[in-house]
Amino acid sequence: MGLGDKISNAAEDATGKAKEKFGDATDNESLENEGRADQAKATAKKAGEDVKDAADDVKNGAEDLFDDKK
């Protein structure tokens, strides 16, 4: 995961938490739900990036393994 993606996901998560708390404090259920949705999107994006990172690690490990056998 690139640094820009990490920053973007963290910002989206923080924004979601702020919306949720502000919605709770003002009895605005719609804003609370919007905040929860923002947090869920950030979590899903992070999971997708983690899967890509793991696949890259496997690919690099396999390349290293085969390079060592030459």
From TrEMBL:
Transmembrane segments: none annotated. It comes from the Bacteria. Residues 14-24, 46-70 have a biased composition (Basic and acidic residues). It holds the Pfam family CsbD. Residues 1-70 are annotated as: Disordered. Belongs to the UPF0337 (CsbD) family. This is CsbD-like protein. It comes from Paramicrobacterium agarici.
